[in-house]
Design brief:
Elements (H helix, E strand, L loop, with lengths): L3 E4 L1 H9 L6 H4 L2 E5 H7 L7 E4 L4 H10 L3 H13 L2 E3 L3 H9 L4 E2 L1 H10 L6 H10 L6 H11 L1
Parallel strand pairs: 1-2, 1-4, 2-3, 4-5
Helix pairs in contact: 1-3, 3-5, 4-5, 7-8, 8-9
Length: 150
């Protein structure tokens, strides 16, 4: 059975931009969004969505001491409390999540999973599409994705 994940707005924005938002429910059992992510992203209409109110002292620590945004802080705090995987693209937030011992992935990791499951033809092509639409995807990462396909 696919897992439940806690998702940051950047991943939602990326998948919306390449018309793959609905695919998230085919990969994961549940997409959990903290309130702050919903406020940041806006209304979202996917079947497997669960919105959670997050109340944790960790949120303020992450925002004040580490200068993370509210959405990223709520995603990390909820992942810390539930031990669910977090989907985050922001490098600083990913580093903080890793330092806390959290299981994380990002948009590219989800694309790879979608390819492996046969839901998309090519993670490389979708990552290139993301880059073409203004998302930061390093050339090194694109090269790795191309090699992965071979």
């Amino acid at each position: 059975m696919p897992e439940a994940v806690i998702v940051d707005a950047s991943v939602l924005i990326a998948f919306e931009r390449i018309d793959l938002l609905q695919i998230l429910c085919k990969i994961y059992k549940e997409i959990i969004l903290p309130d702050a992510v919903v406020k940041e992203f806006g209304e979202i209409n996917i079947d497997c969505l669960l919105v959670r109110k997050v109340e944790s002292r960790l949120i303020n620590v992450l925002m004040r001491n580490l200068n993370l945004g509210r959405g990223e802080s709520e995603v990390i705090a909820l992942a810390y409390e539930t031990n669910f995987r977090a989907l985050i693209d922001d490098l600083k937030a990913r580093k903080v999540a890793e330092d806390l011992g959290l299981s994380i992935s990002g948009s590219i990791g989800v694309l790879l999973k979608a390819e492996k499951l046969g839901l998309i033809e090519s993670a490389f092509k979708k990552a290139q599409e993301l880059k073409d639409k203004g998302f930061y995807v390093s050339n090194e990462l694109l090269d790795e994705l191309l090699m992965f396909k071979s």
